[in-house]
Design a protein that fits this description.
This protein is 23% helix and 28% strand. By secondary structure, it is of the alpha+beta class. The protein folds into 2 domains: 321 residues, Peroxisomal Thiolase, Chain A, domain 1; 134 residues, no CATH class. The strands form 5 sheets. It has a 9-stranded mixed β-sheet, with helices on both faces. α1 packs across α2. It starts with a strand and ends in a 5-residue tail after the last strand.
Length: 470
């Protein structure tokens, strides 16, 4: 039977919280850095899920989000390339609705059950924006979750589903809108969330012939912590049955919210326990999974909890607002306009810039980045093998700080990184505090935005300090 063979997650390092000057709230939420978006976070969650696994077995990739960087261009293809997946796989972007993550899970389960794919990677990622100082901004968060759907070696078997589709104008964002909009609160909650989710969960339990007491963990959608508790109680679930919504630590991550709760539930699920995910958005998807023996074995290298416990408070709300272009300074106007990247160069250099391939000499084993025709150690010519460096840890060999570069995150930190097992690369360092930067700093690679010019999102790999629980 089809089910989940592996799962992972990603939570950005930085948080708005009580220690953030100008935030004026004790509630904490995760915020993507200035060079992160739904695609870069999806790559991070995918790396976490794929850790130690054979990427050549993945037959498809489904990417769910409401915040794709492109209105017309597939983002799943960027993610598949960055994750170094095979070329002959199917990909699709599932967008524009909050329940896209569970819809993608359902489509992957159907593909695997039908035999059209052996393993499908599903990634949900979002970084929605609410109006400054508003309720949506306080309750939202940024993050991603990833799952491998398979028929082999599953750690949680698919145990039924129930779907409702209903046109509901409660939360929306039109083309060109920077912020999420919503209708009158009472209408949105009573006629939307409570009614539709109630009908969907009841429909699932009736179809499966179960009651609320048969559910071990419920990964339930809600816009905020108060409504999360209230809705679970109305549905007849005891507090211990409801997966922690992580409000006050993470926030509502949009399309990724229910998938992240599902991943967190699977981290601690007991063998045989029924885990039910209930999403919301123009209807509802309810999907059940029965945990097999030791479901935590499918967890990625960090998982949702690992990333959640390795956060750092942002210094000020002004920094966050600058990252999101809510407050624009005049620094950019004092510098020349950035040149548009060459599309042909982006395509030609995709293996070294997006897949992040170095080359290992077949004669002496020396690793070079970027790949060169001639080995600098033994001078062998045109005799090397491509080597993926994106998932290799490393250490800072040397570094410099540029206070004049005019970047969003001043100073610009440039480092020479030596990779474990060989290889050296010159790259930017992000997600860093200045007191952390030192020779020998353990780092890992992270897929990030360089810039956006003429509508072209230019991605590259940067180094970040290795994430570890505080």
């Amino acid at each position: 039977m089809a089910g989940i063979a592996a799962f992972g997650g990603y939570v950005p390092r930085y948080r708005l919280g009580a220690a953030t000057d100008g935030w004026n709230s004790r509630a904490e939420r995760a915020v993507a850095n200035f060079d992160e978006d739904s695609v870069s976070m999806a790559v991070a969650a995918g790396l976490d899920c794929l850790a130690g696994r054979d990427r050549g077995l993945i037959d498809g990739l489904l990417f769910a989000t409401t915040t794709p960087p492109y209105a017309e261009k597939g983002c799943a293809s960027i993610i598949a390339t960055a994750l170094d997946l095979r070329r002959d796989i199917f990909t699709a972007d599932i967008t524009d609705v909050l329940r896209a993550g569970t819809t993608a899970l359902k489509q992957a389960l159907d593909s695997v059950a039908a035999g059209s794919a052996r393993q499908v990677l599903v990634i949900a990622s979002d970084n929605r924006q609410g109006a400054p100082r508003g309720e949506a901004e306080r309750n939202s968060g940024d993050g991603a979750a990833a799952f491998i759907i398979s028929r082999d070696d599953v750690i949680a078997e698919h145990e039924g589903h129930y779907n409702i589709t209903e046109n509901m104008m409660d939360v929306w964002r039109s083309a060109g809108d920077p912020f999420v909009r919503s209708w009158e609160d009472r209408f949105a909650i009573e006629e939307g969330l409570e009614r539709i989710l109630g009908d969907a969960v009841a429909g699932y339990m009736e179809r499966q012939g179960i009651s609320a007491r048969d559910v071990g963990k419920l990964a339930l959608y809600a816009p905020d912590g108060r409504r999360h508790t209230q809705l679970a109680r109305q549905l007849g679930f005891a507090p211990e049955q409801v997966q922690d919504g992580m409000f006050g630590r993470l926030g509502n991550t949009g399309t990724a919210f229910v998938p992240m709760l599902l991943a967190a539930a699977l981290e601690d699920a007991a063998p045989g326990q029924l885990v039910v995910a209930a999403s919301y958005g123009d209807g509802s998807d309810v999907i059940g999974f029965r945990a097999a023996a030791h479901p935590g074995n499918g967890q990625g290298s960090h998982g949702v909890s690992g990333y959640l416990n390795s956060g750092r408070a942002l210094d000020s709300y002004e920094t966050y607002a600058r990252w999101r272009d809510v407050w624009v300074t005049d620094a950019a106007s004092r510098r020349p306009q950035a040149q548009s990247p060459s599309v042909s160069a982006l395509w030609r250099e995709g293996d070294r810039n997006i897949r992040f391939y170095g080359a290992s000499c077949n004669q002496c084993g020396f690793v070079q980045y970027p790949p060169q025709r001639v080995c600098v150690k033994c001078q062998a010519r045109d005799d090397s093998t491509p080597l993926r460096l994106s998932d290799r840890p490393g250490r800072v060999f040397t570094y410099s700080m540029d206070y004049l570069a005019g970047t969003t995150d001043t100073p610009l930190v440039i480092a020479v990184v030596d990779f474990d097992g060989g290889g050296r690369a010159l790259c930017m360092v992000t997600d860093r505090e200045l007191d952390e930067i030192k020779i020998g700093l353990p780092v890992e690679m992270s897929f990030r935005k360089l810039r956006v010019v003429n509508g072209i999102h230019n991605y590259y790999w940067k180094a970040i300090p290795r994430r570890a629980a505080d």
